[in-house]
Amino acid sequence: MSPTLGCYGDPQAKTPHLDAFAKGAIQFGNAFAAAPVCSPSRSCLITGVLPGSLGTHQMRSAFPIPETVHGFPFYLRKAGYFCTNNVKTDYNTESAHRLVEESWDVSSQDAHWRNPARKPGQPFFAVFNDMRTHQSRSMTWPYQVFQERVQSEITSDQVHEPDQMKVPPYYPDTPLLRREVARYYDCVSAMDQQVGRILAELEADGLAEDTIVFFYSDHGSGMPRHKRLLYDTGMKVPLLVKFPKKYQPLALALPGSMDDRLVQFDDFGPTVLHLAGIGLPQGFTGRPFLGPGSEPPRKYVYGTRDRVDEAFDTARSLRDERFLYIRNYLPHLSYSQASVYCDVGEIQAEITRVHRETPESLSSSARSYANASRSWEEFYDCLADPLNEHNLIGSIRSAEQEAALERMRRDFAAERKKVGDLGALPESHMWDWIRKERSCMREIADGKTKHSPDLDAVWAAADLVGLSTPETFGPLLDSQNPAVRYWGIIGLRNAGAISPEWLSRVAERLHDPSSDVRLEAASWLGSFEIYREDSVAALVTALQDPDWWVALRACRGIEQLGKNASTAVGAVRSVYERNVHLPGDGAMFLAFSSSAFLKEMGEPIRPWDFSKEPAAGKP
Model's pTM, two decimal places? Predict the structure, then answer.
C-alpha cells in the first residue's frame, strides 16, 4: 500500500489505530521501496542489499546469491533473539530456503512472539505480514469475493461510499473507478484493524514499553499506475517507528515528529541491528538511519523495475528529496502493457476501455499511462507535482529544475555503478554466466570467478537507447558480447530503423547463438510481412526451450505480435495445455502469456480466478 493513512494527511483514509500509533511514533515522509513489486523488494528487506546488486531484480527468477549474504535476523538470532515471521517470505532467490532457515525460529501462519519455544524473558524480533491490502484484495479478486472476505471485516461506518471518493487524475472518473478506489480504502481500513489487534496483544502481554515497533508496506498500492511503476505511487511507502519511553534516546527525534530524510529498504536491516547494538557485517548496501552514530542522510534512493510475471521491462530511477529521474530502457513498451494478473481486474479493463473509446476525456497523465509506448526519459518535481503527472522532459523548466536534471543525469550513472546494478544483462544471459562459472551473478560480476561480463560496456550500449540514430547501433550488432547485441536490436527498434537495409541487418540475428538476441529480433521483425514467417518460426522453436525464461520471452513475443503470429496458435495451445496446471512460477507465467494470446485469437481458455489462492497469500 501507499501512504494512504489519516496520519499522512489522506482525508479519505479511515485508519484510527495507525493514526493513534503515529502520534507516539516518528513518521517518515520519504521512505521508499527498492522496487515497485513484492519479491524484489522483499529480497532487499531480508538481506539489506538492493535487488539490482544481488541479482534478485527479476520477479520470481530464483537466481542464487552469495553464501556470505544472510538474512539480517540471522545476526539477531546469534545475539539471542527469538525471531518469528508470520507467513510471507517471497525472497526471490533460489537461496530462499536457506534465508528462511537461518533467519527465523518460526516462520508460519501462526508465528508469534507468544510461541511456547520462546524462553521466558527472551528478547524477540517478530514480523507480521498482513495481506488485506494486497493487489488481489484491492483489485484482482471478483468484487463479490472482496465483499465476502475483506469488506465484511469492517463496520458500516468504515465502509467507503463510492460516490464520495476522490478519483486520482490519472484515472478516468467513472462509477466503476469510484467503486474500486473505495474498495482499496476499505482494504486499508481492514488492515488498520489488524494492526490494532497486534498492538493490543503487545499491551496485554506487558511488552509495549519494552518494544520498538516498525510499520511499513513492501511497495506502493496494488492499484494501476502504482504497483510495478517507479513513480512515487509505486515506490513511496508509509513508515512509522515507535520507541517506548525507555528507548527514546535511540530515536533521535520526538514522538509524533515528521522525518523527511530519504530512507530505502536496504536500510531497514542495518538499522534494526544497529538499534540492537549488533555490529554490522560487511555487504549491506544500506545504512542505519536510527540510533546514535547512525549514518549521514542519503542523497538518493535508487529504484529498479524489471520483469514482473510475464511482462518484461528494464527501467531505473533516482530520487532525491524533491526530484525524481526515470530512465526507461524499453520505451517501446507501454506502462500498462498486458499482464494477466492485472488485466483480470475490472479496474484495469475500465481504464483500457475508456482510453480506447474516448481518449480525449482523459487527462494527459491517464493517456500517458495507457499509451502504447512511453518516453525514454522522465523527470518530475515531486514538490510541485507529487503524483508525477507532468514529465518535465521537453517542457520549460526553471533554472532550479534544469540544474537538478543535469545533476541527476550525471549522478544516475555513478549511483548505478556504485550499486553494481546487474540489470542490463538479459535474464537468460545471466543464467548462461551462472552455469558457465558455477557461481552467483554478484560474485561473477565482481571478478571472483575465471571470467566475468563487461558490465560497463553493456550499460553503455543500453544507455544509447532512445537518444541515438540508427547508425550508432550498427556496430553493436556485430559485437562479440551478446548482451551488447541485444541492446543494439532494442536501440534500432526505438530509433525507428525500418529501412530495408536496417531490417535486413536485424534479420541476420534471427539465427544468433544468443536466445535473447534472436528472440528480440524476431519479436520486432514479426511485425513486417517480409520477415514474418521466419520470425514466428524462430519464436515457435524457442517455445520448446527447457529453460522457462527463454520459452517465456518467445511466448511473450508471440503474444505481442498478436494476429501477426496467427500461425503459432497450435504451438501456443500446446504451451498453454502443458503449463496451466503445473506448479511453479515459470509454468504460471507461460500459462499467463499463452492464454492471453489464445484469448486474442478467439481460442477457448479457462478463466483465471485468483480468489482461490490461500487466504494468507503465496508463502
Answer: 0.96
